[in-house]
Amino acid sequence: xxxxxxxxxxxxxxxxxxxxxxxxxxxxxxxxxxxxxxxxxxxxxxxxxxxxxxxxxxxxxxxxxxxxxxxxxxxxxxxxxxxxxxxxxxxxxxxxxxxxxxxxxxxxxxxxxxxxxxxxxxxx
Length: 124
Known about the structure:
By secondary structure, the protein is mainly beta. The protein contains no helices and 11 strands. Helices cover 0% and strands 46% of the residues.
């Protein structure tokens, strides 16, 4: 019943921007913190960003701090990741995930539901 569907990925040149969206359904979206993770081939899934249930608090990985912005629109049941100044090392499949109501955890095992992922490729 719980569904998380990412969109907005694609091919972009270094220095470019993309905006990812995660459409949520099957639960009361506004009661849960949400996060973004990414995974490149042959690498571990890594934390990118998280936002609390009201959208007041955020947490970012050092590698994306100052370049990425996580946000949410509880009226639309949607989580966003605005990615600016993209680098080739940002290339990965990006996943949205449902956490706890207050959590800003960087641990993947604190997130109980995951989307199918959307591919982001940063290349010249």
